[in-house]
Amino acid sequence: MNYYLLVYGVYLPTTVLLTVWVAxxxxxxxxxFLVDIFHGNEPLADSVNKLLLTGFYLINIGYATLxxxxxxxxxxxxxxxxxxxxxxxxxxxxLGGMHFFNxxxxxxxxxxxxxxxxxxxS
Length: 122
Hints:
The chain is built from 3 helices and no strands. By secondary structure, the chain is mostly helical. It starts with a helix and ends with a helix.
């Protein structure tokens, strides 16, 4: 049996599904922050949200395909599972990092928008 194909066949669909799930969660829940940041301008918030979604997909799926290749010898099921755990665990950590980075950016943008609103209305 070709264990590399087993690893690739599990890794890529799992990574894509995780990426889609996290991206949709960020897309759905991030809209509220963006509408607030852009002072109720929903078309602008939705446009930025779609651009963020596209970038998120490109970065994460691009990285996943770059790291698809395995150079270690995979000669059995145990090594297949170990290789998958390293690959999928890395992707999960990257998705988590991207999530917190997005939250940080939203936080900073929201603070800047609130400071601008206070200065403009004073």
